[in-house]
Design goal:
By secondary structure, the protein is α+β, with helices and mostly antiparallel strands. The chain is 56% helix and 11% strand. Strand 3 and strand 4 form a beta hairpin.
Length: 415
C-alpha cells in the first residue's frame, strides 16, 4: 500500500533543506504545499500537451477513420487534457494537506468543480463531432439532429450545475432536484420556447417534415428560402435575397409551411403558365389553313388523321361537306393546342415521364386561356426559368402561324 505521508515528508525535507524547519500546521508549509501542487499539475499538463502534439495528433492524422480528425478539430483532446492538472491536485491535496481539513476540503471541491467543467466542455466537443459527422452522412437528408444535440447539451449543463451546487452546499443532488418542483411553474415559463422547440423537434424528426437544405416557403412570416439550421429553439432560413430569417422551431409544426423538398427529389420542376388568346381570332380551319398546317412537322400526322376522322364522321352521318353548320370541323385554336402538345413532347428539356398537357381554361373578359402544364427536367432555378421562357417565346411567336392573336388590353386613353 502506498504511504500517503510520503509526499508530506518529502516536502518537509525540502523545506528543511532551505532552512525552513516548520511543521505541517505552519502557514509557510501550506503555501509551499499549494505551490508544489500547482507546479506538479502544471508540469503534468505540459507533458500531456507534448504527448498530444507529438503523439496523439500524429496518430490521428495518419489513421483512415474521419471521426478522430473531427474530434481533434473540435478540441476534444485538448479539453480532455484539462482533467489532468485538476486530477493531480485532487490526488496530492489529501497527503499534503490532511492536517488542515478546511483547506483540504476547499481544494478538493475546486478540483472537482474544475473536472466537472472540463468534462462538460469535452462532452460538448464530442457532441459537436457527432453532429458534424451526422450532417456529412446520407442520414442527414432524412432528419436533422441539431435540436437533439442541443437538448443533450442543455441536460448536461443542468446535471453539471446541480452537481456543482450540491458539492458547494454539501447537499444531495436529489434533494436539490426535489426542491426544484416548487419552482416548476417558473421553470416552465422560462423554458417555454425550449420545451415547445424540443417537442416540435421530435415531431419534425419523426415525420421527416423539415431538414437542413430544404426550400421552405412561409408567406405569413415573409420566408422563402433554404433552411440553414433546425435548432432546439430557433430555425434559421436564408431567403433568396440572402437575408436570414430566424423563427421559433415550433412554428414549423404550428403554422402553414410549404416544403419544396418533394420537387427537389422528383424528376422535374413544374411549368404551369397560360397564354391569353383573343377570342375573336378563333375560327374554323379552311382548306388553305389545313394545307399550311400540314407542312408543320409536329402536326402533319395529326392533320391527316383528323381530316380522315372528320370525313368518316360526315359519311356516317350523311352530312354534305359543304354543310358548314352541321359538320364537325377543325379550329385553329384546337390545332394550335395539338401543336403545343407535340412541341412539348419533343422538347429535350421536358420530362416526358411526368404529367404533360396543354389545356384550355374557361374563357373570361381577358380572352381564352391556353395553359401549358409540364415539368422541366432541369430543376435549377436559373436553368428552369430559361427553359420556361424559351417555351413561351416560341408559343407566342407561333400564334400568327395559326392565325391567332394574343390578348392584350389596350387603354382607351388618348395621347
Amino acid at each position: 500500500m502506498i504511504d500517503l505521508t510520503t509526499p508530506q515528508e518529502w516536502l518537509l525535507q525540502g523545506l528543511s533543506a532551505v532552512g525552513l524547519d516548520i511543521s505541517p500546521e505552519h502557514t509557510l508549509y501550506k503555501i509551499g504545499a499549494l505551490l508544489t501542487m500547482g507546479l506538479i499539475s502544471w508540469c503534468c499538463a505540459k507533458v500531456f500537451r507534448l504527448l498530444l502534439h507529438y503523439k496523439i495528433i500524429k496518430v490521428v492524422s495518419k489513421t483512415s477513420p474521419h471521426w478522430d480528425d473531427e474530434l481533434h478539430s473540435h478540441g476534444f483532446f485538448i479539453r480532455l487534457g484539462h482533467l489532468v492538472p485538476a486530477l493531480v491536485i485532487y490526488l496530492l491535496a489529501s497527503p499534503l494537506l490532511h492536517q488542515d481539513e478546511t483547506l483540504l476540503t476547499n481544494i478538493q471541491k475546486m478540483s472537482v468543480l474544475y473536472m466537472l467543467l472540463a468534462s462538460l466542455y469535452a462532452a460538448s466537443a464530442l457532441l459537436n463531432t457527432i453532429e458534424d459527422l451526422y450532417n456529412e452522412s446520407h442520414l442527414s437528408q432524412k432528419a436533422p439532429i441539431t435540436g437533439f444535440i442541443q437538448v443533450t447539451k442543455l441536460v448536461l449543463v443542468i446535471i453539471v450545475g446541480l452537481l456543482s451546487i450540491s458539492l458547494l452546499m454539501e447537499k444531495s443532488p436529489l434533494l436539490l432536484l426535489s426542491g426544484l418542483t416548487a419552482v416548476a411553474a417558473v421553470l416552465l415559463l422560462i423554458f417555454r420556447d425550449t420545451i415547445l422547440g424540443f417537442v416540435a423537434g421530435i415531431q419534425i424528426a419523426a415525420n421527416r417534415m423539415v431538414n437542413t437544405g430544404d426550400w421552405l416557403e412561409m408567406p405569413k412570416y415573409g420566408v422563402d428560402g433554404e433552411v440553414l439550421e433546425v435548432g432546439l429553439t430557433v430555425v434559421k432560413i436564408q431567403n433568396w435575397d440572402k437575408t436570414i430569417s430566424t423563427l421559433p422551431t415550433y412554428t414549423l409544426t404550428s403554422d402553414s409551411v410549404k416544403n419544396w423538398r418533394g420537387m427537389s427529389q422528383s424528376g422535374g420542376r413544374r411549368i404551369k403558365r397560360a397564354i391569353k388568346i383573343d377570342i375573336q381570332s378563333v375560327t374554323f380551319c379552311d382548306q388553305d389553313m389545313l394545307d399550311r398546317f400540314k407542312r408543320i412537322r409536329f402536326i402533319s400526322e395529326y392533320i391527316d388523321r383528323k381530316v380522315q376522322e372528320l370525313a368518316e364522321y360526315r359519311q356516317q352521318q350523311s352530312i354534305d361537306e359543304s354543310d358548314l353548320v352541321n359538320s364537325r370541323r377543325l379550329t385553329n385554336l384546337g390545332t394550335f393546342r395539338a401543336y403545343l402538345t407535340e412541341y412539348l413532347k419533343h422538347h429535350p428539356s421536358i420530362n416526358k415521364e411526368m404529367t404533360l398537357m396543354v389545356r384550355q381554361l374557361p374563357p373570361s373578359e381577358t380572352g381564352v386561356s391556353l395553359e401549358l402544364y409540364c415539368f422541366s427536367a432541369n430543376k435549377n432555378w436559373v436553368a428552369y426559368e430559361g427553359i420556361q421562357a424559351d417555351i413561351f417565346d416560341h408559343a407566342l411567336a407561333m400564334l400568327p402561324v395559326f392565325d391567332l392573336r394574343a390578348y392584350q388590353r389596350v387603354s382607351d386613353r388618348t395621347h
